[in-house]
Structures are given as structure tokens and as C-alpha cells.
Specification:
The chain crosses the membrane at residues 20-38, 71-93, 99-119. By secondary structure, this protein is mostly helical. The chain has helices spanning 41-61, 67-86, 99-120, 122-129. Helix 1 packs across helix 2.
Length: 130
């Protein structure tokens, strides 16, 4: 007997572990295929997507930016892409629609951007307030 309407989205039957967060780590299953001898079409497509994103972020951030900043943006993009793609399958609750994952990703990024802007570009930050 189902007591709650939303208990459908809480699959905790196996080993008493909530399986909602399993969709977050689904990209780990795709990593070993990178180390095969002959790259598959999937690997070639993913590498071309990564290089195009790296070039785009490099032009957006400028030539003085560090290479690690594009890695952070591309990895966040990949995490959100995999999680939202898992939401297309029926009866799978994605973790990106949960408030804890959204706040844990967005709040540190927003706070670091604001602190960096106020410390290094104070005039520009005041200009945006006007």
C-alpha cells in the first residue's frame, strides 16, 4: 500500500540506500571506455565536444585566464548534462532538480564570482549597481 504520492520517486528498496543519487555518478561508468585501444565513435564525439567547449571558454575568459578554469566549467557542464539526460528516462528522479545539489553547486560559484569581482574590479561592480 502506497501511503504517499511521492514515494514513487524514492526507491530505497535495495540495501536501504536511497537510489535517487545514483544518477549523479552514472558518468563514471563511461570513463573506462576512454582507455580502450581503438576509440569508439562515442569517444571521438565526446572528445570533439570537449575541445570545442574548451576553445569557446578560452575565448570567453581571455588569454590571461588559467587552463584550470575551463576544466571546471566543462566538468560542471558534463555533470549537469549527464544528470539531466538521465531525467529523460521514466521514473528516474534527477539529482539536479534537488535543492541540495543545486545549492552546493551554485552558491560557492556565485560567492566566489562576487568576491573576485568586488576585490579585483570594484568600479565595474559599482557600475552594475547603478
Amino acid at each position: 500500500m502506497m501511503t504517499n504520492l511521492f514515494s514513487v520517486f524514492d526507491p530505497s528498496a535495495i540495501f536501504n540506500i536511497s537510489l535517487n543519487w545514483m544518477s549523479t555518478f552514472i558518468g563514471i561508468l563511461l570513463i573506462p571506455s576512454i582507455y580502450w585501444l581503438m576509440p569508439s565513435r562515442y569517444n571521438i564525439l565526446w572528445n570533439s565536444i570537449i575541445t570545442v567547449l574548451h576553445k569557446e571558454f578560452k575565448t570567453l575568459l581571455g588569454p590571461t585566464s588559467h587552463n584550470g578554469s575551463t576544466l571546471i566549467f566543462i566538468s560542471l557542464f558534463s555533470l549537469i548534462l549527464f544528470n539531466n539526460f538521465m531525467g529523460l528516462f521514466p521514473y528516474i528522479f534527477t539529482s539536479t532538480s534537488h535543492l541540495t545539489l543545486t545549492l552546493s553547486l551554485a552558491l560557492p560559484l556565485w560567492l566566489s564570482f562576487m568576491l573576485y569581482g568586488w576585490i579585483n574590479h570594484t568600479q565595474h561592480m559599482f557600475a552594475h549597481l547603478v
